[in-house]
Amino acid sequence: MEDKKIRISLCMIVRNEENTIARCLDSVKGIPDEIVIIDTGSTDRTKEIVRQYTERIVDFTWIDDFAAARNFAFSKATMDYILWLDADDIFTDSDREQFLKLKGNLDPLMDVVNMPYLLAFDQFGAATFSLRRNRLVKKSKNFRWIGAVHEYLEVYGHVLNSDICVIHKGTGSADFDRNLKIFEKRKARGESFSLRDLYYYANELFDHRLNNRAIEAYQEFLKTGQGWVEDKLSACGKLADCFQNLGDKDKQLEYIFKSFEYANPRAEFCCRLGDYFLRAEHYEQGLFWYKLATQLEKPIDSWGPMLEACWTWLPHIQLCVCYDRLGKHELAYEHNELARKYRPADPQVLHNKKYLEGMLGLSSRE
To answer: Domains along the chain?
Structure first.
């Protein structure tokens, strides 16, 4: 019987990844039929470690352009499909098993498979921040990467939304200032920024706590009236953060509400409003927004950043606080119990439980 498994090339670009590359390559065991590593100038043991997994190591002179490096990597693939990862990404054992099942059953008419990308976790190991990325693509489609920084893969055709997760483990060698330096060099050369460039340039300024410059860039992005809706929403949230950092509460509130121009209320922005009014000791208004956050339906297969806490436990624990401040301890207890379903070992939730049981004269409940 003919083997219907697709053949996969894993293509990666690396530089000084001796601390993470083995962990990544161990996690993909059995998935790729070939591993292609593009080295952009490692001076550590990266190549030595990689040779334990593949001889397909190709040097690429770094030109401050991630898309160029990734497109070069894709050009070296020889299998039916191309999988891409960064050196500080991994698959868990369960996700690797799911991937192997996908490899054996994928419809060869499928052009693209996207996967959740889990970027942050809480102290209990639950994902707190995620988005989706196109991870596995058909080589014959010749899809191209676009963008010198924060590059994206332009795809079309038949797309499968997979629930196989890629986990960003971090502790890589990336220079925190690298992306901002690339943007600044391009700006100094007089290059025109695309909408996406402008948005990610603003993000770099924000991450470097350059609030006023970030505000200017985000506002310029939003004034175009164009761009991806998820980027517009994110810009509103970051603008609210910038103005909060600067102590401008009116502008902070303005940009939280501005998010409603681009999409129906999201739990993240309802929680922002709840926090705003809670801090101002306007508890009834805080209740309204936190309640709304608990009633919203989570977008299915959203590609934008997702703060899981805002869609699960956070509004309940904040409702507990608001009701407690209003002297409504039974309702406070009720919402703390709802939060406890999501976070049974959370010290704050357990503290609230003990405190409220004392206020209500209840014996300790499990």
So the answer is: 8-168 (3.90.550.10), 175-263 (1.25.40), 264-366 (1.25.40.10)
